[in-house]
Amino acid sequence: MTIQGNGKCILVGEKNTAHIGHFEKQLTKEEVTSIFTDLKNAGYDTLQEKYLERATDLPMTIYSLTENGKTKSVTSQQGQPESLIELDKRLSAIAEAEDWKQSE
Would the pTM count as exceeding 0.85? Predict the structure, then answer.
């Protein structure tokens, strides 16, 4: 899922999700501001680049934030801090919502 600064969300579901295919929706300015505030409050800039285990069958999530032309990515599988777990819950709720519109 991609959330742009203007609130446009793009979801490309391939497997293990209720939304298979390409979908879009629009978040409000307040929702976007709140998400980016949560990222900063979670200390996104100070997170490790990887929180991984040796098990290959665990799900993996890659978070990327681009701000002012600079991108930081965090790959998470297990052992991540609570702030990243809470952020994942919030983003998962957005991704799992029913208000997506299918796009091409």
Answer: no
Q: Are strands 21-26 and 101-102 parallel, antiparallel or unpaired?
A: antiparallel
Q: Which two tokens stand for residue 21?
A: 């295919």
Distance CA 6, CA 75 (A): 25
Here the contacts of 1-6 (C-beta below 8 Å, separation 24 or greater) are 1/91, 1/94, 1/95, 3/27, 3/32, 3/35, 3/94, 5/32, 6/32
Instruction: Work out how many domains the chain is built from and give that number.
Output: 1
Mean pLDDT of 26-55: 87
Q: Is residue 104 part of a domain?
A: no
74 within a domain of the structure (yes/no):
yes
Residue 66's pLDDT band, with cuts at 50, 70 and 90, is confident
